[in-house]
Amino acid sequence: MIFRRIAVIGLGLLGGSVGLAVAENLPGCTTTGFDADPEVRRRAAIRGLVSRVCETAAEAVAEAELVIFCVPVGAMGAAASAIAGALPKDALVSDVGSSKAAVTEALRAALPGAIVVPAHPVAGTERSGPDAGFAHLFRHRWCILTPPDDADPAAVSRLAAFWEALGANVEIMDAAHHDLVLAVTSHIPHLIAYTIVGTASDLEDVTRSEVIKYSAGGFRDFTRIAASDPVMWRDVFLTNRDAVLEMLGRFTEDLTALQRAIRRGDGAALHDLFTRTRDIRRSIVEQGQDDARPDFGRSDHED
Amino acid sequence: MIFRRIAVIGLGLLGGSVGLAVAENLPGCTTTGFDADPEVRRRAAIRGLVSRVCETAAEAVAEAELVIFCVPVGAMGAAASAIAGALPKDALVSDVGSSKAAVTEALRAALPGAIVVPAHPVAGTERSGPDAGFAHLFRHRWCILTPPDDADPAAVSRLAAFWEALGANVEIMDAAHHDLVLAVTSHIPHLIAYTIVGTASDLEDVTRSEVIKYSAGGFRDFTRIAASDPVMWRDVFLTNRDAVLEMLGRFTEDLTALQRAIRRGDGAALHDLFTRTRDIRRSIVEQGQDDARPDFGRSDHED
C-alpha cells in the first residue's frame, strides 16, 4: 500500500478526479476531502469524490499520509497555511498546480519543515467544478514531479508510485524548467485561445451569431480551450509570468514574420512553415497523447 | 432530381466527401471525377469516391449539369480554364473554396458566360487526400453560397437544394463579407495554430520531445489544426490577404493588451476576459457546432 490515507484539498475537476482515481486504483486507501465552497462539498459528497468530505481542511488532513492541494495556484499558500497546525509530521505534501516554482515557494513558506514534493499532472478538460472530474483523467497522461533539491528521494519515489498507480507516466524535472516547458505546451496556447475568442466576440463588422455559426472552420477548437476555469488560468499567468512573457515574445516575433509573408505574397515561406508543422502532430498521435480519428468523433459521421 | 450528373474536379478530402455524400443522399445521380494527380485518381477509383474517375477534366465535365471545383483556391483559375472548351452551356459551376471573392473572380474570368455560383461548406478535418473523405462530412455544417449580384436566382436555389440534400444548412452571403467572417472563424485560428506550433518546434531551451510529451496541456489542439493541408492554406492566405491582415491586426492589439496585463500583474483584467470567453463556447455547443463531452472522447475515460 503506497498511502493508506490521502487528503484532497480542493474538490474541483482535478481534486475530484484524484479522489475517483484513488477509489478505482488503490482499493483499501481512504480519502478525505475539503473544499472552501459549501456547495462544492455538498456535490462532492453526493458524487462520492472522496471517502469522507470534511467541514474543515484541518479535519481532512488530520490523519493523512499524503496531502494533495488541488486549488488554483494563487490559493496554494493560504490553503497550506490553513492546515499548518493539523498536518501530521511525516505527511507528504503535494499539489497539482500548473506552475511550479511559485507553488513550491508558497507551500514551503506556509509549511516550514514539511516534506513538500510538488507535482503537475498534465491532464484536464475545459470543464471545472465538482461535477467535472472522472477516474480516468490521468491515464496515459504525464505527471511531472518537481522535487526541491533537498527533497527526500524516498518521498519522491513514493509520490511517483502513487501517480503511476493512477495510470500516469511520471517524469521528474526542475521547477524552473517545468515552468518554461509548460509555458509553451499549455500556458501560451491558452492565452492565445482566450485572446482570439475575445477578439471575435468584440467585432462590429462580424456578428457574434456569425462567429458561432461558422466556428467549425477552426475557431471552435479555441473556444473549448477558452472555456477553461478563469480563476485557475488567471493564477497561472500571474505566477508563471516570466516564462509566459518570454515565450509570448518568441510567438509574436514568429507571427510578425508570417504577417509579413502574407503581406508580401510570399507563398513559399507560408508553405514551408505549414509543411514543417505536420511532423509534430504525427509524433503526438504516435505517442498516444491525442486521437487521430478525423474530428475526434466530433462530427457525427460515425453515427 | 436536383442534378442527374455531377462532375467533381479535385478528389481530396472535400471532393471525395462530396462524391461519397452524393452517392449516399442522391440515389440515381451519377458522378464523374478528375484529379490532376494520377495516384489520387487511382485511390479515388479504389474507394469509389465517384461513379467514374476520368482521365481528363474535360471528359469529367462533358455531360455534367453541375461542376464542383474542389482544388486549392489558388488552382481554381487553371482548373476552370482546363474545362472551358468542354463545359456544357447550361451547366452550373461551383466550388468549395475557403476564400470567395478571389475564387469568384478566377472562375468567372476562366469561364466567361458560364453560370457561376461559388460555395463554401464550412467543414473539414486536418486530414487531406483521397483517403480522408467521408459521406457525413457536411451534415449539420453550414454551407455558405456567395452568388454574384447578377446570379440567376433559380441556379442559386438549385445549388442550395443540393447542399441541403447532403445534410448541410445553407446560408447566402456577399463574397466580401464571407471573407471577413471566415478570416475570424477559420483563417486566423489556422494562422495562429501554425505559428505557435512552429515556435514550439524551434526552441533551444525546450526540446521537441518535451513539447510532444506535454502537449495534453492545450498545445495538441493547435497541432491538429496545424496539420491541415499546406497548399490549401497557403492559397487561403494569399487570396484572402486583406481580411486576414485586418483581423490579425485586431488580434495582435488584443494580445498586446493581455501581455501588458500579465506584466503588470493585473489579475482583474485577466479574469474578466477569461470569464467572457466562456459564453461563446456555450452557444457553439448549444447550436450543435461542437460536442460538449469532456475532451470529445479523446481521453479514454469512456473505455
UniProtKB/TrEMBL annotation, chains A, B:
Organism: Tsuneonella litorea
Residue numbers spanned by region Disordered: 284-303
Coiled coil, from the record: none
Prephenate/arogenate dehydrogenase domain residues: 4-292
Entry protein name: prephenate dehydrogenase
Family: Belongs to the prephenate/arogenate dehydrogenase family.
Cell membrane among keywords: no
EC number(s) recorded for this UniProt protein: 1.3.1.12
Database matches in Pfam families: PDH_C, PDH_N
Alphabetical UniProt keywords: Amino-acid biosynthesis, Aromatic amino acid biosynthesis, NAD, Oxidoreductase, Tyrosine biosynthesis
Catalysed reactions listed for this entry: prephenate + NAD(+) = 3-(4-hydroxyphenyl)pyruvate + CO2 + NADH
Recorded superkingdom: Bacteria
Record-linked InterPro entries: 6-PGluconate_DH-like_C_sf, NAD(P)-bd_dom_sf, PDH_C, PDH_N, Preph/Arog_dehydrog, Prephen_DH
SUPFAM superfamilies: 6-phosphogluconate dehydrogenase C-terminal domain-like (SSF48179), NAD(P)-binding Rossmann-fold domains (SSF51735)
Biological process annotations from GO: tyrosine biosynthetic process
Metabolic or biological pathway: Amino-acid biosynthesis; L-tyrosine biosynthesis; (4-hydroxyphenyl)pyruvate from prephenate (NAD(+) route): step 1/1
Gene3D superfamilies, alphabetized: 6-phosphogluconate dehydrogenase C-terminal like domain, NAD(P)-binding Rossmann-like Domain
GO molecular function, one term: prephenate dehydrogenase (NAD+) activity
